[in-house]
Structures are given as structure tokens and as C-alpha cells.
Design brief:
Layout (H helix, E strand, L loop, with lengths): L1 H10 L6 E3 L3 H9 L6 E3 L2 H7 L5 E3 L6 H10 L4 E4 L6 H13 L4 E4 L6 H9 L6 E9 L8 H23 L9 E2 L6 E8 L2 E8 L6 E8 L2 E6 L4 E5 L5 H29 L7 H12 L9 H20 L3
Parallel strand pairs: 1-2, 3-4, 4-5, 6-9
Antiparallel strand pairs: 6-10, 7-8, 8-9, 10-11, 11-12
Helix pairs in contact: 1-9, 4-5, 5-10, 7-10
């Protein structure tokens, strides 16, 4: 993931000063691919002491996030941290409190919020009426060959993406949600809740194929279909009629084809081969660090997502023998 953060950093006009990895050979390999005199280091503290680092991007396993964040916050360095920001909501709350006490920005990487399709859908929502259903599905190959425990851990680490989308699009706290969680096997999560009059469903599967990352938002005046792998979305409208039922598959297919082709062309022009939304998130976070706007993800959103993830994880554990 570090290489894609480095790619995004370069394309928003910033520079990668140093690549830090406990495996120095890996750090050197990535640094060698970057323009300029990018340092490679194995020690975070030495890097902070010896280099002028203005923002720290954390792309390490979640178990290391707490320690890294505390060191950086201690010397006043803003952090953009891959999701989940911390192992649990309590640690997330502690880190945000520490960052706020030092006037340091701390932000999780929920890049789906900044995909072109999601941004466009967000602007259109006010014209689509009440949101009745919001469904998010993620079928991932990221745990192929892994143990059951690892499958479950990866599935839980994927949940923040969907929770962040629900929080942003609904515009309300998730704290009131009473999550109903299915009894699927390790890495197979299906959970539902009623939030402010909207039925929300999140499904994560580490075995179902083909792979998928999608969002469907059903409203009174239309439905949003978003492809989160590629970053585009379409809006399907239609009146209840026989003609509409006959034509809808063709209209929907044409919309999807047009959106996919336009999105592919746009990403080619922008030089964005992977992780759509990451570059825009990085741009906004770097601007916030320079005092040119707010953090792209608020502390309240970050805490809300971490609490919901904990609630779903606890429900999974409670439902097992």
C-alpha cells in the first residue's frame, strides 16, 4: 500500500522525503523507484530526527498504528493512517484526544468517500428523496490461503470502508444502530441495522466470487449504483410502468458501460491506475495540514466508524459457540 501512497503524494504536488520500513531492503526498493533523493530508513525515530517530515503516511499493519501515532503526535507530525486507524474504538479515541491536545491532525484512510462516483452521488442525493436502503458488498481475495482467524481479521478490517460510506451519505451518527449480525463462518460477515429510517446492510465475504466492491443506495426518486473498485457511479431513475420494466435492463447496461468507459479514460488521463479516491483524500489532507481547509474526515466520523466496527465485532464473537 505504501507505493500507492507514494504515487498519490507525488501527484498532489508533494514529495516523499523518506520511506521507513523495519525491513530496510524493502524501504530501499521503494525509495529507488521514486524521483529525487528519497531516503530509506528502518527507524521511525531516527527519520523524524534527521529528516524534515511534515506529514506521516502510515501503511503498516494495524497492530503498529498506536505506537507509531504516539511517536509522531509527540513531535507534532500530522498522520494519515490506513484503516482501521487503531485496533479498537478505545484506542482510536485516545489517539484523537492526544492529537487534539497537541493540535495535530489525525485522519484515517477512507478513500472511497473521495471517489468521483461517490462525490457525484453525494451531490445528487438531495434530488433523489428519502434514502430507504443502503447496501454495501465487499467480496475480497485478500485472504486467499489464509487461516480462518486471519480471514476474520481481514474481513473486520474491510468493514470501516462501508461504515464510513454509510456515515457520510446518511449524515447521521451510527451510534444508535442495533446491528443484527449473521452467523457466517470466518471472514463471512453480513450485518444490518435501521439508522434514521434507512435500512443499512453491509456484507463482507473472503470466499465469494467474483470479487466485488459495490454500493447501492435506493431512494424514493432513484437508485445509485457505485462500483467502488473503479470509482464510478450511475443513477437509475424510472417510473413504475411496463415500458420501464422492459427498457430498464438496456438503459442500465448503457449507463454502466458509459460510466465505466468514461471513468477508465479519466483515470488514464489522470495517471491513477489503482485505489481511486486515495489521491483526492491525500490532496485534501495535505491542504488541511497546510491550513487550507478542514480535515477531510472529521474526528466525529472517525470515532463513529470505530465504535460501529467494535459493535459488529462484539456481536460476531457473542454469536459464536
Amino acid at each position: 500500500m505504501g507505493r500507492w501512497h507514494a504515487h498519490a503524494i507525488r501527484h498532489v504536488g508533494s514529495r516523499v522525503v523518506a520511506v521507513i520500513d523495519s525491513d530496510l531492503a524493502r524501504a530501499r526498493a521503494l525509495a529507488a523507484r521514486l524521483p529525487g533523493n528519497t531516503a530509506s530508513e528502518s527507524s521511525l525515530q531516527r527519520s523524524l530526527d534527521e529528516h524534515r517530515i511534515e506529514v506521516l503516511h502510515v501503511c503498516t499493519p494495524v497492530e503498529s498504528h498506536d505506537g507509531i501515532a504516539r511517536v509522531a503526535i509527540g513531535v507534532g507530525i500530522p498522520l494519515l493512517i490506513e484503516k482501521p486507524l487503531a485496533l479498537d474504538a478505545a484506542t482510536t479515541r485516545e489517539l484523537h484526544a492526544l492529537a487534539e491536545s497537541r493540535d495535530v491532525l489525525l485522519c484515517p484512510v477512507h478513500q472511497f468517500l473521495f471517489q468521483p462516483g461517490i462525490l457525484a452521488a453525494g451531490r445528487a442525493m438531495s434530488r433523489l428523496g428519502a434514502i430507504r436502503q443502503l447496501d454495501i458488498v465487499a467480496c475480497s481475495a485478500g485472504a486467499d490461503g489464509a487461516s480462518d482467524a486471519r480471514r476474520e481479521a481481514i474481513a473486520l478490517d474491510i468493514l470501516p470502508h462501508g461504515l464510513a460510506l454509510a456515515r457520510r451519505l446518511l449524515g447521521v451518527s451510527l451510534d444508535s444502530a442495533a446491528w443484527r449480525v449473521g452467523e457466517g463462518g470466518p471472514g463471512e460477515i453480513r450485518t444490518m441495522a435501521d439508522i434514521a429510517g434507512t435500512s443499512v446492510m453491509l456484507a463482507v465475504s473472503m470466499r465469494a466470487r467474483p470479487t466485488e466492491n459495490s454500493l447501492t443506495v435506493r431512494c424514493d426518486a432513484g437508485t445509485v449504483h457505485a462500483n467502488l473498485f473503479h470509482g464510478y457511479a450511475t443513477i437509475e431513475r424510472g417510473a413504475p410502468s411496463r415500458l420501464d420494466k422492459v427498457g430498464r435492463p438496456f438503459v442500465g447496461a448503457a449507463q454502466a458501460l458509459g460510466a465505466a468507459a468514461g471513468n477508465l479514460a479519466g483515470r488514464a488521463v489522470r495517471g491513477e491506475p489503482a485505489y481511486p479516491g486515495l489521491r483526492e483524500l491525500v490532496r485534501r489532507f495535505h491542504a488541511a495540514c497546510a491550513g487550507r481547509g478542514p480535515s477531510p474526515i472529521s474526528v466525529e466520523e472517525s470515532l463513529d466508524v470505530s465504535r460501529a466496527r467494535d459493535a459488529i465485532s462484539a456481536a460476531r464473537m457473542h454469536g459464536r459457540p
